[in-house]
Specification:
10-stranded mixed beta sheet; about 400 residues; 6-stranded mixed beta sheet; alpha+beta; Creatine Amidinohydrolase; Creatine Amidinohydrolase, Chain A, domain 1; single chain; 12 helices
């Protein structure tokens, strides 16, 4: 790291969270893991199924982590049968020893030439019948073909599983508080190192360094840089450009760091060595007002359409959005995923919000031509009476 770049050095956590962070390999309690298994077994009963195949690949596949504690590396395929220990097969062979250690509630083995083949062998040993197997997770065509060749059609349980994941347990919320604290450190590092001459690559580097040494992993750091006098960017970009920050630039970012797949998410906008122009003041003023209006609506029993109505000031001010206005988070990019009147959602569910849901409010207010925009917002917890914050970094349009 360049000697003139700085980073936050520690996490200010209460003792109960510090104990989780400081564990060699942190684990959820037996009660929490039993709760999850009971939820899945209840889902199997509801759908008249006897077995579940759960899978993930390339660190994607939250059901594997949720059920076993193992954050998927290359590939993992597991079998859950009520009354039987879970069986899980992983790729590659050198990943199996650590998987056995972390996923110690499951019987873990190397999948050999085919992890799905190992799972099928377990299903056959357990007497699985056609039409009695469900699947959660991203299954490849080859895996699906191999499974259905032996057991016929399988039931897709991803939608009901996602509904289970929308509401977080008390322990999951605690782990997400650690993820939020790590995420705050990433945004603080970006803010504290924004200056003319810093490259976007350096900024991405300092963001990750702010939390990796403290136990975090990178989820995203989307960063956008554009001159306020002649803007050409309405939303942070998914990959950093090879350019340097200049005086008069506007910089906005969306950052998520995770603690063992339990993330935070925070979005902020900054100006570099200059006051915001009138256009950017207007954009950010609307974004702040929309955040507050949406936050005022959210509570148990509120409906997604109310969120969209609360954001109507975007159109009233002559602006629109590019990014989603709100989405669920934790265990994936979860529903509801909402837009606004001028940039509609693909689907607006009617189901009300529930206490324990975690969502990100993120008004990305932009000009109608998409050339100028700001972003603000953060992850919050929905309660019976409103929302509770996860993040500590102050909101606002900050000049650095």
């Amino acid at each position: 790291m360049s000697e003139h770049l700085t980073r936050p050095t520690d996490l200010d956590l209460p003792p109960r969270l510090r104990a989780i962070l400081d564990a060699e390999y942190p684990r959820f309690s037996e009660a929490e893991m039993a709760r999850r298994r009971a939820a899945i077994e209840g889902l199997l009963r509801e759908t008249d199924l006897d077995h579940l195949v759960f899978c993930g690949a390339n660190r994607f596949g939250s059901s594997v982590q949720w059920l076993t504690g193992w954050p998927v590396t290359t590939e993992a395929v597991g079998v859950l049968t009520p009354g039987e220990p879970d069986a899980m097969f992983v790729q590659h062979v050198n990943h199996a020893p650590l998987a056995r250690r972390i996923a110690n509630r499951a019987e873990v083995a190397w999948g050999g030439g085919s992890s799905i083949g190992g799972a099928i062998a377990i299903l056959e040993k357990r007497g699985a019948r056609a039409g009695k197997v469900g699947v959660i997770g991203p299954m490849t065509f080859e895996q699906y073909a191999a499974l259905t060749a032996i057991l016929g059609p399988v039931a897709n349980l991803n939608r009901p599983y996602i509904r289970l994941r929308q509401v977080k347990s008390a322990e999951e919320i605690e782990w997400m508080r650690i993820g939020a604290a790590l995420t705050d450190r990433g945004m603080m590092a970006l803010r504290d190192n924004l200056r003319p001459g810093a490259s976007e690559r350096q900024l991405a580097d300092v963001v990750e360094r702010a939390y990796i040494a403290l136990g975090g992993t990178n989820v995203i750091h989307f960063i956008g840089v554009t001159p306020m006098a002649n803007p050409s960017l309405g939303v942070p970009t998914q990959f950093v450009a090879n350019r340097r920050v200049a005086r008069g630039d506007m910089v906005f970012a969306e950052i998520s760091a995770a603690f063992w797949e339990h993330p935070g998410q925070v979005l902020r906008s900054f100006t570099v060595d200059a006051e915001p122009t009138e256009l950017y003041r207007d954009l950010h003023g609307v974004a702040d007002a929309v955040f507050d209006a949406v936050a005022a609506v959210l509570k148990e029993g509120a409906r997604p359409q109310q969120v969209i109505e609360a954001a109507a000031m975007i159109e009233a001010a002559g602006f629109t959005i590019i990014d989603d206005l709100l989405h669920g988070y934790g265990g994936g990019y979860l529903p509801p995923i909402l837009g606004c009147k001028s940039r509609p959602s693909a689907h607006v569910p009617d189901e009300p919000f529930r206490a324990g849901m975690v969502v990100v409010i993120q008004p990305n207010v932009v000009t109608r031509d998409g050339t100028a925009g700001v972003q603000t917002g953060e992850m919050v917890l929905i309660t019976a009476t409103g929302i509770a914050p996860f993040h500590a970094i102050p909101r606002g349009f900050v000049r650095v």
